[in-house]
Amino acid sequence: MIEFKNVCFVYSGGEEGDGIKNINLTIHKGETILITGDSGCGKTTVTRLINGLIPHFYEGKLEGEVLINGKNISKEPIYQISKYVGSVFQNPRSQFFNVDTTSELAFSPENQGISMTDISKRIEKAVSDFSLYSLMDRSIFQLSGGEKQKIACASVSVAESEIIVLDEPSSNLDIAAIEDLRNMIAFWKKEGRTIIIAEHRLYFMRELADRLILMKNGRIAEELPAERIRNLSIAESQKRGIRPLNIGDLSYSNDYVLHNTSFIKISGLSYIYKDKIHGIDINDIQLKKGSVAAVIGHNGAGKSTFAKCLCGLEKRCKGLLEVEGKKCSNNKGLKYCYMVMQDVNHQLFTESVIDEVLLSMSDQNSITDEEKEQQSEEILKNLGLLEYKEKHPMALSGGQKQRVAIASAVAAEKSIILFDEPTSGLDYNHMKKVADCIKDLSKSEKTIFVITHDPELILHCCTYVIHLENGKIKDSYNLNNESAEKLKSFFLEPYKQTS
After folding, report:
1. What pLDDT sits at residue 14?
2. CB neighbour class for 259 (10 Å; exposed up to 12, middle 13-18, buried from 19)
3. φ, ψ for residue 368 (rounded to 5)?
4. DSSP per-residue codes, 52-105
5. Is 155:97 a contact under the CB 8 Å cutoff?
6. pLDDT at residue 499 in the model
7. Cα–Cα distance, 64 to 54 (Å, whole number)
8. CA dist., res. 184 & res. 176, Å (int)
9. Is residue 204 left, alpha or beta, with left meaning phi > 0 and alpha meaning psi from -120 to 50?
10. What span, in angstroms and rounded, lies between the C-alpha atoms of 75 and 458?
11. How far is 60 from 376, CA to CA, in rounded Å?
12. DSSP 360-383
C-alpha cells in the first residue's frame, strides 16, 4: 500500500506553483491509478515521490510522509526502493545502461545480486509474456521508439517490481505501440501489480484504470472511480481540461475554408537508405497554399524521412519542390522550410526563451530590434510562454520546450513549416493552443505538414491527410466531417483487431 500523508514539496530554486501541496492519497495493492492534469500540475512530482527520485535525485523542501508498506520512502536508500518500485520514463533512452537489449533486461536483477540462473529464467519469462523474441540481442540504438519502450517495460517485469510507475509512457508512440503498451499494463494488472501512470493521453487506459486522479495547481482536484471513467463524455472531459477517454466520440472542429488559389507542389520525392530497403518514393503531392496536412502512418512508414527530405536535410534525396511558382530541388528545401523536431532538445540553443525566438528572426532586417522583441513577446503570449521568457529553455518541462520550438517556427517566417509530433507530452489545453497556432499560421498563408499520432490535433486544425505506409502514399484526402470517420477508423484499428 502507498500512502501520501499531508505531502508538500517545492523544488529547490522553484517558483510558486511548482511541486505539490497538501496531498493525501492512499493507493491499495493491485490498483491501477491514472494521474492526469495540465502540464506542471504536479503529476510527475507524485511519481518521483513514489520511486524515490524525490528527494534522492531532485532536491527541495519536503513536508509530510510518503509511505510504502509502512516505510517512509524518503528515508530509504534508493537502491532499496528499486527492489520494489520500477519506473518507465517518457523517454526510455534516459533509463538505459547497456548498448544491447538482453544485457539491459539483465541489468536490474544483476544489481540486486540475483543468480544468473534466476536472471535467465526471468528474462525468458518476460520475452515469452510480451513476445519480444525479435528484439533480443539487438542494439539499443537500432530500435524504434515503440521497441525501446517495450524493452523498458520488460526490464521492469524482469526486476519483478511489485509497484510500477510510468511517466507519460505513450507520448512518443504510434497507435500500434500504444496498443502494445496497453497490453503490457493489462498483463501487469492481471498479475496484481500496483500501477501508477501519469499521462495526458487517456483513451488507451479507459478500461484499465481503477481510479483517475485529476490534479490542478499541485493539488488533487477530483477523483473518479472506474465506472465514471468509462462513461466520461467528451464534453465532461473538455470541461475538466483533459484529453478524451474515447476517440470514437471525437468530431471534426476546423471550420476554416481555404480560399487561396496558388499551390505547393512536391514531385518525384525519393530517397533510399544504405540498406537498400527502407526509404520513400512519393510521386506527387499538390496542396493549396495555407493547407494543414496531417502526415499519418505506422512507425517505419516513412513519415520522418519525408519531413527530412522535404526540408533538404537528406542531401541524396531526389525530387522537386515548387513554391509560389518557383521550382527548386529538394536539397534546397531549407530556403523555404522550417522543421520543429520531435526531440526539441536538438534545436534549443540560447540562454533564454525570448532569445530563442529572436534567433529565428535574425534574418529579418526590415524591422527594428524593438519591433522584433514586441513580435516575439506576442508569439510567446499566444503559446502561454510569456511568463517564462527570461528562463533558460533547458530548464523548462518537455511540453514547454516543445512550445518554445513552435514559437521559433512561427517567428522564422518560412513558406512551409513541418511539425514532427508537436503535441508530444502536451495536455488538452496546450494541445488546443498548438492547434490554434497552426491554424493562425495557415491563415497567414503558411503551408503546414504535421507528422503526428494525435487524432485530436488533426481534427482540431488539419485540412488534409496524407497516409504513408512502406514509404509510399497509401491514401490522401481532404478532411471534413465525413472523412473524419476514416481518420478515426485508422486510430481505432488496433482496438478493432483485439475486440
Report:
1. 63
2. exposed
3. -75, 165
4. THHHHTS-EEEEEEEEETTEEGGGS-HHHHTTTEEEE-SSGGGG---SBHHHHH
5. no
6. 44
7. 13
8. 13
9. alpha
10. 47
11. 33
12. HTTT-TTS-HHHHHHHHHHHHHHT
Residues of the chain with pLDDT under 50: 16, 499
Q: Residues, the chain, total?
A: 499
In sign, the C-alpha dihedral spanning 1, 242, 451, 491 is positive
Cell for 68?
Answer: 510504502
Q: What letter represents residue 15's amino acid?
A: E
Element (H, E) at 328: strand 326-329
Helix 398-412 vs helix 428-443: angle between axes, to the nearest 10 degrees? 10
* DSSP codes joined into one string, 100-134: BHHHHHHHHHHHTT--HHHHHHHHHHHHHHTT-GG
Tell me: cis bond preceding 55? Omega within 30 of 0 counts. Answer: yes
The answer to whether 229 touches 206, Cβ cutoff 8 Å, is yes
User: The cell 465514471 sits on which residue?
Assistant: 228
CB 479 within 8 A of CB 464: yes
Per-residue pLDDT tens for 174-221? Answer: 888 888 899 999 999 999 999 999 999 899 999 999 999 999 999 999
Which residue is listed with cell 540560447?
Answer: 350
Q: Are 283 and 267 in contact (CB under 8 A)?
A: yes
Q: What are phi and psi of 56, to 5 degrees?
A: -75, -25
The helix/strand/coil state of 230 is helix
